[in-house]
UniProtKB/TrEMBL annotation:
InterPro entries: Thiolase, Thiolase-like, Thiolase_C, Thiolase_CS, Thiolase_N
Active site, per annotation: 89, 342, 372
Protein known as: Acetyl-CoA acetyltransferase
Keyword NADP listed: no
Organism of derivation: Bradyrhizobium neotropicale
Length: 387
């Protein structure tokens, strides 16, 4: 089978809600990452055959062919097509997998996978509120779905509580995990670990190059003081991912393109998997997806040097660690979404960028990325660092 290679992977530093990136139109923010992957590898922008861009809340400034608008706001020529996809939190991870499949099939040789989300300018759930405002319909969960699963709606917050209960996690366990996320992210920032992956964005103060959500002075006491999301529960805003503005992108190419454009790859894609399971508990699916991905790749968890498991809620990576019997020291080594933020549609290529650069910096070989997604879906991407 033909191979798919990653030549460059970048992300913006995360911006807090109403923070430093609030002035950036999401199409412009996405455009900067498209420009960056092309500029950094020196390829002719006209050689890009497609842009696949993930975005969850496709409304307002992120509506109306958002991926195409990102291209039009960039320095790529107007001849480059684009498409916007929604696989919830895994949207841009799926973009990478679609790009890799295009390259591996031989139908395309140079594709950019990307993602963007301004959760400040296009608030979460704003794309499903039409029926509430106008009295039109009942919303996205139809009567058939409600009858089949015995619920009026699916809630990730409830799913997080269900996982915590199933795996026996109390609040203190979740808060300790959250604290470690901030500590690792702070240490990575101070050491310059993110330097190679971050695309600077101009802001009033100069350039935005540091993730805004990291609490450098975080303590167990401060995290524990945050109100629970549900009375009697264990999940709080402090042990869940932060609302975040950001964009990310990766250039995925074939072996033919490497030779034709004299490109040096930084990683090879080893495995691509997506699975779906229970939409009610919803967030447990990365466990089953990981098992399938490792089996398909002929690998064991011990073969993987680093893992990025999205910290949508602390119970998710903790349950994954327990079920997979994975090494906590290899998980989210530079911190995760609890500290760095979760810009929804941008998180897939964001985590990929962090994973690939961390592998190369540490002289490691194999990395695995997964995340929980709305509807009980999960993607798993396995990569091999090169060079």
């Amino acid at each position: 089978m033909a191979e798919a290679y990653i030549v460059e992977a970048v992300r913006t530093a995360g911006g807090r809600r109403n923070g430093k990136l609030a002035g950036w139109h999401p199409a412009n923010m996405a455009a900067e990452t498209l420009n960056a992957v092309v500029d950094r590898c020196g390829i002719d922008p006209g050689a890009v055959e497609d842009v696949i861009l993930g975005c969850v809340t496709q409304a307002g400034e992120q509506a109306f062919a958002f991926g195409r608008n990102a291209v039009l706001a960039s320095r790529l020529p107007g001849s480059v097509p684009a498409v916007t996809i929604d696989r919830q939190c895994g949207s841009s991870q799926q973009a990478v997998q679609f790009a890799a499949q295009a390259v591996m099939s031989g139908t395309q040789d140079v594709v950019i996978a990307a993602g963007a989300e301004s959760m400040t300018r296009v608030p979460m759930f704003s794309n499903i509120s039409l029926h509430q405002k106008e009295g039109i319909g009942i919303g996205p969960i139809s009567d058939r779905i409600q009858k089949r699963f015995g619920v009026e709606s699916f809630s990730q917050f409830e799913g997080a509580e269900m996982i915590a209960k199933k795996y026996g996690f109390d609040r203190l366990t979740l808060d300790r995990f959250a604290l470690e996320s901030h500590r690792r992210a702070a240490a990575a920032t101070k050491s310059g670990a993110f330097r190679n992956e971050i695309v600077p964005l101009k802001i009033e103060e100069g350039q935005h190059t540091e993730d805004e959500g990291i609490r450098f002075d975080a303590s167990l006491e401060s995290i524990g003081s945050v109100k629970l999301l549900k009375e009697g529960g264990v999940v709080s805003a402090a042990n869940a991912s932060q609302i975040c503005d950001g964009a990310s992108a990766a250039l995925v190419v074939s072996e033919k393109a490497l030779k034709e454009h004299n490109l040096k790859p930084i990683a090879r894609i080893v495995g691509l998997t997506v699975t779906a399971g229970d939409p009610v508990i919803m967030l447990e699916e990365p466990i089953y997806a990981t098992r399938r991905a490792l089996a398909k790749a002929g690998m064991k968890i011990g073969d993987i040097d680093l893992y990025e498991v999205n910290e949508a809620f602390a119970p998710v990576p903790l349950a994954w660690l327990q079920a997979i019997e994975a090494d906590p020291a290899k998980l989210n080594v530079n911190g995760g979404a609890i500290a760095l933020g979760h810009p929804l549609g941008a998180s897939g290529t964001k985590l990929l960028s962090t994973l690939v650069h961390a592998l190369r910096t540490r002289g490691k070989r194999y990395g695995l990325q997964t995340m929980c997604e709305g509807g009980g879906i999960a993607n798993v991407t396995i990569v091999e660092a090169l060079g």
